[in-house]
Structure formats: structure tokens, C-alpha cells
Amino acid sequence: MTATAHRTRHLVLTGASGTVASLVARRLAPTGHRLTLTGRTVPGDRPRDATAGPGAAVRYLVCDHEDPASLREAFRGADAVLVVTNDPTRPQQDRNILRAALDASVGHLVKLSAAAVHDPGADDLVTSWQRENERRIRACGIPWTMIQPRSFMTHALAWAQDIRARSATAALHPDSRNACVAPEDIAEVIALALTDDVHHGRSYQLTGPQALSAQDQTRILAELLGRPLTCRALTRSEARAGFLRRYPPAMAEALLLSADRQAAGAKSATGDTVERLTGRPPTSFTRWATAHLHRFV
Ligand SMILES: NC(=O)c1ccc[n+]([C@@H]2O[C@H](COP(=O)([O-])OP(=O)(O)OC[C@H]3O[C@@H](n4cnc5c(N)ncnc54)[C@H](OP(=O)(O)O)[C@@H]3O)[C@@H](O)[C@H]2O)c1
Predict the structure, then answer these.
(1) pLDDT score at 4
(2) Which Pfam families match (predicted)?
(3) Do 128 and 156 meet the contact criterion of CB atoms below 8 Å apart?
(4) Where would you tag: which of 171, 221, 262, 297 has the fewest CB atoms within 10 A of its CB?
């Protein structure tokens, strides 16, 4: 820990109602740093669990990545901004954020990117978009930190309804493995990066402690729930239809390609970055699922 870690900072979290930034907010709220939490749906729908502790200064600001003026307003006086965007089909949002950060003379950008940017041959829409976002941020002149996680363990929550109703899970390549990481671990690393200049210019690939397949995760959930579960292989068209229910066609195709890369073994390597930065081992899927078991019951 360096001396810079103890200075009170104004930290802006974009995507504050989302999976990772809401956990970053919860972690930082009691620390005394000034937080601005942004999204299209705040302050009416506050980020879950971002409860301010004693002495915390948290404000919620409505901000749309399509609206440069709202971004400039949100970033004014920011020592650091967590950049979370989630729509590769609208890259103007990423350009708007960078432009506003430059206009507001933001001190540090912490970018939630993806481990896939390092995968050879990964040129799907999502990975190409994240690579280009990283390239622009690295070149912009503002100090940066890249956060590059593997798949979030929270993907298993997509099975919750089928587990409750049919004791079943499903995946396109059920035996392919991914070194998936707990969003709580990602949030802890981001909180460190936002509050200590020692992380400037660093890229952190974040994984869980082991690579698991959908079948492995189903087995773990079955053990924790104390009842049998089955894991079914989706056909390609079933998987595509599932993605299309949630994403535009270009995203659905990117996610299919990403699943194929996983089947080819591209996502199974684990690393020690979470442990090196936090001083404790990364959260296992068993531990994550135990903490979230109520969602599957
Ligand atoms: N899922 C994975 O396994 C995985 C793995 C590696 C990397 N990643 C990366 O992680 C990032 C997503 O993180 P996440 O899952 O924590 O986010 P998320 O849950 O998808 O949340 C993103 C938030 O952004 C806000 N948002 C969306 N459009 C907006 C707009 N136009 N203006 C302002 N706010 C907007 C939304 O809140 P409002 O509705 O309130 O605006 C939403 O809550 C992506 O860049 C993805 O590539 C994901």
C-alpha cells in the first residue's frame, strides 16, 4: 500500500446499477471517498446495495452514454472514472466517454475490459470492440488501468429459473471449461485500482482459481442444493435463439464464436492476479454459489 492510497478522491462509477460497478460501489461507499454513481435509471432506482456508510459521500446522477453533456457533468472534478459500457453495436458511447473524460481532465480511467483481448484469433465483435476501446484509452494521455476478467460466475444465474422449475441447466458446449471469476473479486481489484496510483499503466487479467465447465458447475450446484441436476447440450440454433432473446443479432453471433473459442480451450488458463493484488486466493465457484444459493432455490 502506498501513501497515495489514503487521499480522499472523487470517484465516478459508470454502469453503477450493473453487476460489477454495483459491487465496486458497495465496497467503496464506507471508505470515505466521494462517489458519483451514474446510469440512466438512477437516482430513482438506486444501485443495489450501494449503501453509504458513516461519513460516506455518495451521489447518484442520471447520465446517458449517448449524451455527451451528461457525461461531462458526471465527470467534472473526477480523480478517477470506472468505465463500464456494454453495447459493442454503439461504439459512439465509448467515444463519448473518452471525449468527456478529456474535456473534464479526469485523472485516471479504470476500464472494465475482457481477458479475451489477449486471445489469439479472437476477432468477434465484442472482443474487437474491447480491444479498440483499450487502444483508444491507452493513447489518450490520461493514466489508465485495464481490468480484463474471464467470464463472470454470475452467468450461472441464467440457469436459476430452469434449476428451480426443471432441475436442469443447458449450454452450447457443456464440457468446455472457463476460468470464470467472481464479480466480487473483480470489484475488489477495481476498488484498489481506483484508489491507488500504483496501478496506473497496468493491465490485470483476472480469473477464478480453476477452469470449470457447465457440467462441473451443474455438479457443484447439485451438491450444494442437495438434489440431482442435469446439464443438457444446446444445439447451435437453440443457443443462437437464446442469445437473440437478450441481444441484437451481431452480439448473438459474437457470443457463439466466443463459446466456440472456449470449446477450443482458449479460456481455461488461470492466473494469480487476484491473489497478488488482494492478498487472498480468488473466490471458488463453490464459494460464490454458496453465497448466492438462495437465487437457485
Ligand atoms: N459478463 C462477462 O462474463 C464479462 C466478461 C468479461 C468482460 N465483461 C465486460 O463487462 C462489461 C459489463 O459489465 P457488467 O456486466 O458489470 O455491466 P452490466 O451489468 O451489463 O451493467 C451495465 C450498466 O450500464 C448501464 N448502461 C447501459 N447503457 C447505458 C447508457 N446508454 N448510458 C448510461 N448507462 C448505461 C446500465 O444501467 P442503466 O440501465 O441504469 O443505465 C447497466 O446497469 C462489458 O464491457 C463486458 O464486455 C463481461
Answers:
(1) 64
(2) NAD_binding_10 (PF13460)
(3) no
(4) 297
Q: What is the pLDDT of residues 235-283, one digit of tens each?
A: 999 999 999 999 999 999 999 999 999 999 999 999 999 999 999 999 9
Nearest residue (by CA) to ligand 1, atom 5, is 151
Q: How far is the CA of 39 from the centre of ligand 1 (A)?
A: 10
Whether residue 254 is contained in a domain is answered as no
Residue 189 in any domain: the answer is: yes
Tally of structural domains, the chain: 1
Of 48, 82, 86, 126, the one to substitute when testing ligand 1's pocket (max ligand atoms within 8 A of C-beta) is 86
Whole domain around residue 77: which residue ranges? 3-149+183-207+269-280
For residue 75, give the CATH number of its domain. 3.40.50.720
- Kind of pairing between the strands at 230-233 and 177-178: unpaired
Q: Is the pLDDT of residue 150 over 90?
A: yes
Q: Is residue 173 part of a domain?
A: no
Ligand 1 touching residue 93 (CB < 6 A): yes
pLDDT at residue 49 above 50? no
Cα-to-centroid distance, 85 and ligand 1 (Å)? 5
**pLDDT confidence tier of residue 180, bands split at 50, 70 and 90:** very high
Residue whose CA is closest, atom 34 of ligand 1?
39
Q: Is residue 257 part of a domain?
A: no
Alpha-carbon separation of residue 240 from 124, 231, 252, 254 (angstroms): 15, 18, 6, 10
Query: In 3D, which of 222, 159, 187, 138 has the Cα closest to residue 13?
Result: 187
CB of 65 closer than 6 A to ligand 1? yes
